[in-house]
Write a sequence for this structure.
């Protein structure tokens, strides 16, 4: 009598794939010795926000990483072909249709166990497969779940490497970390993904100190976004591109050409055209780098003059710009420290610092800046 075929199933966004994915899968394959390993890149993960990276590219990335690591796996485009959110129970139904007599093992990290009861049709998942769990740091109390779910535990502890943290660091620095396999990294470079296109343009078109400032603002904005529960990648993108307009020699001409005419355009063009760079930067973010998120674009446009109404993301970028790590004046460190616990107080301090600098240096004071200062102080009193 033929033995029952064992299929090891592993799904994820792989956005991008990293050493944590590969190490867990290799260990699971060595432990289980399945007849087949089948990997499913998600089109849209049920538990995560939509990826900015095309699913077809993510599939190529995980395929390249698996091949380089000599993991004999089949990369299945089932979810990608469906073109919509796909749940794990649907993947298992699909496999049951292909091989009704096979025994399925679903590979997950122990960090999935606390929320496993929230997975759609989780009871059906348990009927259709055996959970194969890899222990991750901070989620080692797996025995607590023995009475709730049946699972097999892989020997060892596996790194809690997260793709979202990797994407953030990549977006801030423009450097692909060594946790991404060389073959996947080469694909990322070739496709200019994960912010590499932005870094390339900024490095070539901004002065080195301005480019460094942009990276510093991106890092601080990302940190503040975590504190104030704003989307970190939006904050990082806004921080990185907020000064892209500084790479344009004729900023007034650029704005006129593209129909960018904020309130007071003529007066600003005459007295302080450099102030237009924030509006130009927002336009460049959209047209050159494909940033279409309205909140991100608005934050970029408002980062210099501010606005009467500012979202959390607007405030984060406004504060991060004036208090970024390389700023030499004492107020920057104070604003940065205040921002860790009180974003609105940091915003008021940032606006005050800007206002004092303009007056101290006998610069033209933009009327919009006065309106916004009055608005911010009124809101603080209220």
């Amino acid at each position: 009598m033929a033995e029952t075929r064992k299929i090891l199933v592993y799904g994820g966004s792989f956005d991008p794939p990293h050493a944590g994915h590969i190490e867990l899968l290799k260990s699971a394959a060595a432990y289980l010795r399945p007849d087949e390993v089948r990997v499913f890149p998600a089109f849209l993960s049920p538990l995560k926000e939509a990826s900015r990276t095309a699913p077809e590219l993510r599939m190529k990335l995980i395929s390249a990483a698996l091949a380089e690591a000599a993991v004999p796996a089949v990369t299945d485009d089932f979810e990608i072909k469906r073109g919509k959110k796909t749940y794990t129970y649907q993947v298992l139904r699909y496999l049951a249709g292909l091989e009704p007599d096979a025994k399925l093992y679903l590979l997950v990290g122990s960090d999935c166990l606390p929320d496993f009861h929230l997975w759609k049709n989780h009871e059906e998942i348990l009927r259709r497969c055996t959970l194969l769990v890899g222990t991750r740091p901070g989620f080692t109390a797996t025995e607590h779940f023995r009475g709730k779910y049946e699972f097999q535990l892989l020997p060892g502890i596996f790194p809690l490497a997260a793709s979202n943290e990797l994407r953030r660091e990549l977006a801030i620095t423009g450097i692909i970390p060594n946790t991404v396999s060389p073959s996947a990294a080469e694909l990322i470079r070739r496709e200019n993904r994960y912010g590499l296109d932005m870094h390339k343009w900024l490095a070539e078109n901004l002065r080195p100190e301005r480019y460094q400032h942009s990276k510093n603002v991106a890092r601080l904005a990302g940190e503040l976004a975590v504190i104030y529960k704003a989307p970190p990648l939006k904050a990082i993108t806004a921080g990185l591109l907020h000064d892209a307009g500084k790479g344009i020699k004729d900023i007034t001409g650029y704005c006129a050409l593209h129909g960018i005419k904020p309130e007071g355009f003529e007066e600003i063009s005459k007295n302080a055209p450099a102030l237009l760079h924030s509006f130009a930067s927002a336009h460049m973010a959209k047209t050159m780098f494909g940033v279409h998120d309205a909140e991100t674009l608005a934050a970029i446009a408002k980062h210099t003059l501010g606005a009467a109404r500012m979202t959390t993301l607007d405030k984060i970028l406004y504060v991060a710009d004036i208090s970024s790590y390389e700023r030499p004046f004492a107020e920057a460190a104070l604003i940065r420290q205040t921002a860790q616990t009180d974003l609105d107080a940091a915003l008021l301090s940032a606006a005050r610092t800007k206002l004092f600098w303009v007056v101290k240096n006998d610069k033209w004071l933009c009327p919009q800046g006065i309106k916004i200062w009055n608005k911010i102080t009124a809101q603080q009193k209220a």
